[in-house]
Write a structure and sequence with these properties.
23 helices; beta-glucosidase activity; TIM Barrel; 27 strands; 8-stranded parallel sheet; 3 domains; alpha/beta; Immunoglobulin-like; binds beta-D-glucopyranose
């Protein structure tokens, strides 16, 4: 923890210095909130810290009683403008201090018009579009009575066994941080009290993505360095973008559950990273302190959480039940409760709830914006840009001549599975299945369908339909096989040990492959699977992810070439489960992967390369790269270096390439990643067009945390890589003086 001690002492000096300055006058918000707190009883204060799930009847006497007595500060899982208005009316008309309720929800990738899952969105590498997609979700949620969404989730993870990889931005800190910022801005807009926006709640602070072996809620075990280099930066990006709220993780950081971890929540999050919104627990994590044996009872759990810096208790109802007596008994200081209440009231103030507690409950607006044509169009664009073409041996796009298409596979006609985990108010009847997408496509193909096998989620059965599908596919011009996982197989609680698709599906593809007909596999999944055998038997593979409401149309447009794929992988696709965790920016160890003898760091029985590297994705165009040109071979700390490369479209159709720049620090006091993403640009090129793409590099791109975990930049030689993905690139070196 040396790093934090150092920074904290610096912060202390700064604040001590600050104390000698004249105090700034209180803002209107401070005056308002102070005044309100001064009127509150202990019970009312504890009530503001209480966040309860409530989906029951609005007439329930017990619920009404809680509202009237000010025992509820916020509600989750209550939706709809009319319903939430009714609840708000009770709080405003019947409670003593008329403090409005804040409504919260898991609007993770859409409210009712569902966008692709966040990992898929990350695959677009289109930061502006990701922001737009968050805005679509915000507009619908806000019109439906929601004030805050539990998103973005920004937990970096390198383990596809962990089901929650679907919810975040992938394995890379640079890309993940850009996405974090974009999603916060998309949800929150420019003004929090604009009823077309929602407050974002970035989660889960911090390190949850490192859950060991990909088992959800498992222990995490990493160094301070990893915490600061990998897990914290996307949170920092959200905080710098003004995120209103943070949710802590289920995880225990250095064996201290995040909920009770004062160092994590107060020293790091609030003091060091400068977060000044309000901080909530995850689901029942105060009670979990008792379950895990960190607290002997709820009273101790509440004390630990409050003193660590928690300001809102999700679901456990420990704060509301215990804090008033704890203050009276001298177990916690009232000032600490007041501080927490202040943060919650400030959030309500910023959302404009004290000016108009009903501004988010506009049924006319709700009808107009939810599932609007504009929103459907936007999520379709997101779906198109998120899909990654992994393999294509001259079969895609499907040519006009291929009239006789046989669609097979257990996911061809399913709808809910396209919505994915956390589909909020999304409904299957609004979804276009992949089969329907192909059927409705303007090329009017002659379609036949055979299911081929069960999804076989539990890996027990479902192969008896294979022969029928093989018979149906015998005379096809082309076979499109839609395979993958059901909506619930990734997501929270979705840890798996097996990263191959269920064997029935693998067998189906192997049997179809034997027919020698062009075979396209479309994979619907929320995580990278080991697609090694699928890719071997298929002529083309499209990673469609869980693409949302408009996913079926998007797949069809890509298959028929109306849209040229642009997606690039935000996570490495392993060749074998045994490689996991696998990621592109590993550090060199004492032994090489390719040692001539057995003394190598690779596994003896599998290759060390992944099946598809981070950043990888094909297009129907073909791009070639020139050599990197530098404007100077070396530059000093206050200069900039420009690196350029020519990219040519050698293909026959227009296409968009994502030109990626990676840097390695060749010599350093600590081992450094073999390369790190430091920039990327999307360029659109017509056939035969050549464009020069330039990147500006400054010393800020070369900083790192030194051996004392202090931000540093060292003079010396660096390697620069520019290319289409993390493993194929042109390279050169430059020197920082
Ligand atoms: C999840 C959170 C989610 C919360 C409320 C928890 O189990 O970890 O990400 O926001 O439930 O649904």
């Amino acid at each position: 923890m040396k790093f934090f001690n150092y920074l904290l002492s610096t912060l202390f000096l700064l604040s001590a210095f600050g104390c000698q300055q004249t105090q700034a006058p209180k803002s209107d918000m401070d005056v308002f909130v102070d005044n309100l707190i001064s009127q509150m009883t202990l019970e009312e204060k504890a009530g503001q810290l209480n966040l309860i799930p409530y989906e029951g009847s609005v007439d329930d006497p017990e619920f009404i009683n809680q509202l009237e007595n000010g025992r509820v500060g916020a509600i989750l899982k209550s939706n709809g403008a009319a319903r939430n208005r009714q609840i708000q009316e009770i709080a405003i008309q019947k409670s003593r201090l008329k403090i409005p309720i804040m409504f919260q929800e898991d609007v993770i990738h859409g409210y009712k018009t569902i966008a692709p899952v966040p990992l898929a969105e990350a695959a677009s590498w289109n930061i502006q579009l990701i922001k737009e997609s968050a805005k679509v979700a915000a507009v619908e949620a806000a019109a439906s009575g929601i004030h805050l969404t539990y998103a973005p989730m920004v937990d970096i993870s390198v383990d596809p066994r962990w089901g929650r990889v679907l919810e975040a931005g992938g394995e890379d800190v640079y890309l993940g941080s850009l996405i974090s910022k974009a999603r916060v801005e998309g949800f929150q807009g420019n003004q929090l009290d604009d009823p077309n926006t929602v407050m974002a709640c970035v989660k889960h602070f911090a390190g949850y993505g490192a859950s060991l072996a990909g088992r959800d809620y498992n222990i995490i075990n990493f160094s301070d360095r990893e915490m600061m280099e990998t897990y914290v930066p996307p949170f920092k990006a959200a905080i710098d973008a003004g995120v209103g709220s943070v949710m802590c993780a289920y995880s225990a950081v250095q064996s201290i559950p995040a909920t009770a971890n004062k160092y994590l929540l107060t020293d790091l999050l609030k003091k060091e990273l400068g977060f000044d919104g309000f901080l909530m627990t995850d689901w029942s994590t105060i009670s979990n302190l008792v379950y895990t044996g960190v607290a002997e009872n709820d009273t101790i759990a509440a004390k630990l959480a409050l003193e660590a810096g928690i300001e809102m208790d999700m679901k456990a109802e420990v704060f509301v039940n215990r804090l008033p007596d704890m203050v009276r008994d001298g177990i916690v200081k009232e000032a600490l409760v007041d501080n927490a209440v202040r943060k919650v009231l400030e959030a309500k103030y910023k959302l404009g709830l004290f000016q108009d507690p009903y501004s988010y409950f506009d049924e006319t607006r709700e009808k107009k914006v939810v599932m609007s044509a504009d929103h459907q169009q936007k999520v379709k664009q997101m779906a198109l840009e998120s899909m990654v073409l992994l393999k294509n041996e001259n079969v895609l796009p499907i040519s006009e001549k291929k009239k006789n298409i046989v669609v097979v596979g257990p996911l061809a006609k399913t709808k809910k599975d396209l919505l994915g985990w956390w589909f909020c108010k999304g409904e299957e009847e609004d979804v276009i299945s992949i089969y329907e997408g192909i059927e409705q496509h303007s090329s009017k193909p002659k379609l036949r369908f055979a299911q081929g096998c069960e999804i076989d989620s539990f890996r027990v059965a479902g192969k008896e339909l294979i022969p029928q599908a093989v018979r149906a596919a015998k005379n096809a011009d082309i076979i499109v096989a839609v395979i993958g996982e059901e909506y619930w197989m990734s997501g929270e609680g979705g840890g798996v040990a097996n990263l191959r698709l269920p064997s029935a599906q693998e067998e189906l593809i192997a049997e179809l492959g034997k027919l020698g007909k062009p075979l396209v596999s479309v994979v619907v999944s929320g995580r990278p699977y080991v697609l090694t055998d699928i890719a071997e038997h298929s002529d083309a593979v499209l990673q469609a992810w869980m693409p949302g409401t408009m996913g079926g149309e998007a797949v069809a447009e890509i298959l028929f070439g109306d849209f040229n794929p642009v997606g690039r992988l935000p996570m490495t696709f392993p060749i074998h489960e045994g490689q996991v965790p696998i990621y592109y920016n590993y550090r060199k160890t004492s032994h090489d992967f390719n040692a001539p003898d057995r003394y190598s760091t690779r596994h003896l029985d599998i290759p060390h390369e992944p099946l598809y590297p981070f950043g990888y994705g094909l297009s129907y165009a073909k791009f070639s790269y020139g050599e990197i040109e530098l404007d100077k071979p070396q530059f000093s700390m206050n200069e900039e270096l420009t690196a350029s490369i020519e990219v040519t479209n050698m293909g026959e159709v227009e296409g968009t390439e994502t030109v990626q720049m990676y840097i390695r620090d060749n010599v350093c006091q600590i081992t450094r990643p073999v390369k790190e993403l430091k920039g990327f640009q999307k360029v659109n090129l017509s056939p035969n067009e050549i464009k020069k793409v330039s990147f500006t590099i400054t010393k800020d791109d070369l900083t790192y945390l030194d051996k004392d975990l202090k931000m540093a930049v060292d003079a010396g030689e660096f390697t620069l890589f520019i290319g289409p993905n993390s493993s194929e690139n042109k390279q050169t070196t430059f020197t920082l003086k």
